[in-house]
Amino acid sequence: MAPPDTRTQILDAAEHLFAERGFRGTSVRAITDLAGANLAAVSYHFGSKAELLAAVARRVIEPINAAQCAGLDRLLARTPDPPVTELVEAFAGPLFDEMPAGDEGGARTARLIVTIIVDPAEEMRRWTGSAEDTVRDRYLAAFGRALPGLSPEELWFRIRGILAVTAVDRVEVYNGRPPASLSPVAGEAARRWAITFLAAAMSAPPTGT
Amino acid sequence: MAPPDTRTQILDAAEHLFAERGFRGTSVRAITDLAGANLAAVSYHFGSKAELLAAVARRVIEPINAAQCAGLDRLLARTPDPPVTELVEAFAGPLFDEMPAGDEGGARTARLIVTIIVDPAEEMRRWTGSAEDTVRDRYLAAFGRALPGLSPEELWFRIRGILAVTAVDRVEVYNGRPPASLSPVAGEAARRWAITFLAAAMSAPPTGT
DNA sequence: ACCCCTTTCATACGTTCGTTTGATTCAAAC
DNA sequence: GTTTGAATCAAACGAACGTATGAAAGGGGT
User: Fold this and answer.
1) How far apart are CA B203 and CA A205, in angstroms?
2) CB atoms A133 and B179 under 8 Å
């Protein structure tokens, strides 16, 4: 068994705390304490707190992007024009499946992503690479073929709708306030509900002028 | 014309800055500087930074809640069981209409709300009153009658989906990263797109077991 | 003219933050 | 055994933060 790499332990601790308290709400000291490392280790291994966030974000996003890409490949290998429902499944599914286990059904990771996306600070959007853009553009093209008559702008609006529903929905689960006495959402049920919800939404006819 | 009330100017400045930089990213000094007031004015008029946020949030949410409530009243006065599409319009419409003008189509205010909802800190959810719960429960009941066969849990999931789409969608518009060369979403178009998208989503048949 | 109460002001306090520094440890390379 | 370079460490830096304090200002009512 490999020794507990300090760098990895800092990544784990940061992922946990950023998700739990946000970027600004998490001090470097809290991260190194939880990781059992020295305060200066963050500067040494990552350069700065912002670059640590970027490393955390990349590690979380990467498997999701890969699964989205693979899912689309699988669909396109079968037919050049997959139906909307299957595109939704391939795009939104990994947002549920590719979250680390023991993570309250991925809610903590979902919150991490939302925290990053929503944050107004500039440095929070510095970490994205071209891989994300590639996946996005491929799905845009596929959805465009499956939904002829939809303007590119409205299509882009709907794609963002998918992200909004899958991400924010679970964030709100995470920090509470459901109406009194509603059993918490089970992980697998939420996934199916989201696919149902989003497949119907994506399949809506184009909005008239 | 009334004199520029210090308290109001602080509210305005705080609303602007909280939306632009988030709660933790905004210092009390930045607020009072923008408001042209003294640093201690925040403590004097509001007690603390957190209570200032609560006041800002209440001022923004109140007209939205009122419009949602009035819209539902109007529908119910016509028929005891309004169709799904009209319920969506009444619920989501005010999220577009009741945002202050000169606000980049409400995107800045939408971002303020999302910033507050998403924030993990405890004090960010201290300001909500019973008015919000009342509106939410009334729409839950109305949607429940319009969508028989939907479990309360899935219904709650869908309601949150509405909020997610209307709010987050415009936040992402606000801090950028659309695919290359897509004209920015016009305010009125986004509103219609959202209603189309959400009406179809809400009308989806219940997810089978 | 005096007092009272609200509002504003300059200043300071104590804390926490991200980052830097220079010494120290330690295992492998020579 | 000595050297080397990566990794860790305690300690400190200056800056920024939220809040508190006590004095000053302002304007009615008497």
Assistant:
1) 13
2) yes
Three-state secondary structure readout of B68-110: HHHHHHHHHHHCCCCCHHHHHHHHHHHHHHCCCCCCCCCHHHH
Of B118, B156, B178, the CB nearest to A156: B178
Question: Are A196 and B204 in contact (CB < 8 Å)?
Answer: yes
Using a 10 angstrom Cβ sphere, with 0-12 exposed, 13-18 middle and 19 or more buried, the burial of residue A90 is buried
CB atoms < 10 A from the CB of A14, how many?
27
For A36-50, what is the mean pLDDT? 97
What is the reported pTM?
0.90
What does pLDDT average to over chain A? 88
Identify the three-state secondary structure at position B198. Answer: helix
Nucleotide nearest to B28 (CA to C1'): D18
- In this structure, what token pair is assigned to residue A108? 């903590």
- Residues B163/A168, Cβ–Cβ less than 8 Å: yes
Which chain B residues are Cβ-neighbours of A111 within 8 angstroms?
A: 118, 120
Record the tokens describing residue B18, joined without a space: 């909280």
